[in-house]
């Protein structure tokens, strides 16, 4: 008997109805099922001692599921109730078979690099730590303003950015926000860190692709505030002299796949690229 968690997107009716059917079929097989909606007040209890966490939503649901695990080594199986599903492994009609195959060991695991982010706030002397599978973003708080940041790498000052924001992303995150800011598309099997400016107000507007061992420090300058988000979660409002430090995390996201994940087909679908 396996302990299986279902993390279900509550605003996707198809995901909710599918989760009910999936729960019944897995319970008939003798497995124990937990649903995230049943433990809203204690989600850490929801993910404790799971053999498998099934995400039923889009790629955003997988990001939230990875965050809920908080470093636990539980593999995540994504069932696609979104659109393209870069991170998912199966479609809704395949959900039951995909779970059974995973429990039987008939699957592969992709280990995805993550980022560790530490936010140091000067005024409150507080320290915030978080981890990202996609990206860390520091961006403006007002439409009419830019954010100004000093950027250092491995302790050496690089330059000052004036931009709508900066995106620090993993290869997994290269197809997310960084992609919309014209960053490069990086195969998720690589280990690297990308820094992509958002609408930079300066001549240097290129993405930097850095070694995964690089320590990146951003320090807010001037009297304009900035928002810091981690995989879409707001973690801090930054003031002058506040620092954001990003490094490769010691955590690894484990995503279930069935054979080698197709990296190119979602891109061809998204952009209407045809075989020639």
Average pLDDT reading: 93
| CATH architecture type of the largest domain | Sandwich
Q: Would you give the CATH topology of the largest domain?
A: Tumour Suppressor Smad4
Q: What is the C-alpha radius of gyration, as a whole number of Å?
A: 20 Å
Strand content of the residues, in percent?
35-45%
Structural class: alpha+beta
CATH superfamily of the largest domain: Probable inorganic polyphosphate/atp-NAD kinase, domain 2
Overall 3D shape? globular
Output the helix-strand order: EHEHEHEHEEEEEEHEEEEEEH
N-end to C-end Cα span: 49 Å
User: Count of DSSP helices?
Assistant: 6
CATH C-level class of the largest domain: Mainly Beta
Counted beta strands: 16
- Overall domain count: 2
Major sheet: order of its strands? Answer: 6-5-16-13-8-9
Low-pLDDT residue spans: none
């Amino acid at each position: 008997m396996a302990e299986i968690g279902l993390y279900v997107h509550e605003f996707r009716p198809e995901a909710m109805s599918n989760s009910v059917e999936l729960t019944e079929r897995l319970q008939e097989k003798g497995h124990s099922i937990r649903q995230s909606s049943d433990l809203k007040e204690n989600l850490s209890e929801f993910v404790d001692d799971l053999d498998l966490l099934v995400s039923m939503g889009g790629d955003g649901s997988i990001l939230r599921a990875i965050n809920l695990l908080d470093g636990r080594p539980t593999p995540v199986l994504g069932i696609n109730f979104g659109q393209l599903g870069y991170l998912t492994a199966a479609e809704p009609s395949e959900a039951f078979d995909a779970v059974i195959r995973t429990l039987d060991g008939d699957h592969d695991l992709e280990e995805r690099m993550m980022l560790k982010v530490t936010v140091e706030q000067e005024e409150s002397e507080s320290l915030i730590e978080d981890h990202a599978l996609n990206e860390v973003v520091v961006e403006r708080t007002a439409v009419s303003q830019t954010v100004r940041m000093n950027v250092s790498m491995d302790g050496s000052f690089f330059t000052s950015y004036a931009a709508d924001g900066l995106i620090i992303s993993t290869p997994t995150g290269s197809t997310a926000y960084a992609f919309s800011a014209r960053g490069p598309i990086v195969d998720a099997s690589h280990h690297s860190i990308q820094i992509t400016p958002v609408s930079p107000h300066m001549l240097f507007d290129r993405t930097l692709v850095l070694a995964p061992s690089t320590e990146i420090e951003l320090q807010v300058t001037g009297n304009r505030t900035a928002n810091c988000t981690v995989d879409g979660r707001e973690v801090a409002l930054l003031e002058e002299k506040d620092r954001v430090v990003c490094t490769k995390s010691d955590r690894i996201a484990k995503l279930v796949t069935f054979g080698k994940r197709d990296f190119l087909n979602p891109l061809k679908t998204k952009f209407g690229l045809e075989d020639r």
